[in-house]
């Protein structure tokens, strides 16, 4: 074979090889015009071994920022994704559910402007898709907390009107609010129970004393443990209101408000007497 024939054969083989590689590249790189197509392809491969993934638009935020949460599930089953956020003190900040699109993607927005988000530190955003094995989490940093607050209670305390704080712990849900029921000598705790769990309250005796009964959603509850002024309530998923009843509870309006009301009543009586007016009508 002479040199001219060898050169021609080499040229043909080079052309065929180039066309083959170009064709294979075109098939493997659909959408390669996107700058991050390689990263998306890698993420897709990882997703095959990862039942659910989750990520955020940033890794660090300031109080008041909005956190964009994104994720994807490998096998869509029609169930929603449950999201739970825990703050740096290991207290639940929020629980929510997100619907999953047909392509397995989901997303939501978390607003960090609120009392439950007031602490600096690492917040854990966990997602669960149907079972404990199908879960994942992402960590974000929150900073820039201000010293001003609507109350002086810690994150592990329930705030009651009148600047009273009641230590508590909860599993299986989160506390959404609390109030005093002075008519029934009780404290009402509103919760969002995503699953069966427990609520433990340990109020000071100056706030609530003589605890002897618990109501869950208006019904007397027996699955309760009493230890002095420490009470643990075992509730079921879906519970919304827990009322702890004692023999004494602080006045709903606080000591100062009661004193003002007493002064007002005395003043009315004094003015009535001076003007020779009678509160009760004369017949």
Structural commentary:
This protein is an alpha+beta fold and 283 residues long. It contains three helices and 18 strands. The strands form four sheets. Strands 9, 10, 11, 13, 14, 15, 16 and 17 form an eight-stranded antiparallel beta sheet that branches. It has a five-stranded mixed beta sheet with strand order 2-8-7-4-5, with no helix packed on it. A three-stranded antiparallel beta sheet has the order 1-3-6, with no helix packed on it. Strand 13 and strand 14 form a beta hairpin. The longest helix has 26 residues. The termini are far apart.
Question: What order do the helices and strands come in, and which of them pair?
Answer:
Layout: H1 3-28, H2 37-47, E1 52-56, E2 60-62, E3 66-73, E4 81-86, E5 92-98, E6 105-111, E7 121-128, E8 135-143, E9 157-160, E10 164-181, E11 186-201, E12 208-209, E13 213-216, E14 219-220, E15 224-227, E16 230-235, E17 241-245, E18 248-249, H3 254-274
Parallel strand pairs: 2-8
Antiparallel strand pairs: 1-3, 3-6, 4-5, 4-7, 7-8, 9-10, 10-11, 11-16, 11-17, 12-18, 13-14, 13-17, 15-16
């Amino acid at each position: 074979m002479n040199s001219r024939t060898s050169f021609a054969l080499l040229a043909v083989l080079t052309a065929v090889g180039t066309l083959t590689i170009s064709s294979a590249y075109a098939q493997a790189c659909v959408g390669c015009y996107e700058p991050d197509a390689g990263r998306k392809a890698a993420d897709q491969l990882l997703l095959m071994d990862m039942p659910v993934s989750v990520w955020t638009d940033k890794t660090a935020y300031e109080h008041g920022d909005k956190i964009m949460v994104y994720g994807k599930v490998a096998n869509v089953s029609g169930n929603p994704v449950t999201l739970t956020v825990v703050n740096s003190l290991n207290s639940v900040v929020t629980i929510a559910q997100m619907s999953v699109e047909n392509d397995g993607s989901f997303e939501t927005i978390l607003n960090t402007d609120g009392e439950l988000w007031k602490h600096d530190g690492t917040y854990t955003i966990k997602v669960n898709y149907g079972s404990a094995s199908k879960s994942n989490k992402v960590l974000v940093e929150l900073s820039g907390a201000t010293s001003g607050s609507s109350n002086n209670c810690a994150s592990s305390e329930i705030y009651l009107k009148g600047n009273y704080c009641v230590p508590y712990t909860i599993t299986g849900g989160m506390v959404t609010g609390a109030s005093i029921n002075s008519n029934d000598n009780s404290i009402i705790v509103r919760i969002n129970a995503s699953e069966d769990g427990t609520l433990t309250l340990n109020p000071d005796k100056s706030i609530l004393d003589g605890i002897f009964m618990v109501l869950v959603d208006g019904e007397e509850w027996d699955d309760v443990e009493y230890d002095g002024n420490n009470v643990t309530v075992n509730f079921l998923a879906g519970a919304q209101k827990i009322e702890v009843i004692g023999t004494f509870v602080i006045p709903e309006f606080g000591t100062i408000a009661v004193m003002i009301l007493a002064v007002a009543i005395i003043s009315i009586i004094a003015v009535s007497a001076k003007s020779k007016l009678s509160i009760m009508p004369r017949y």
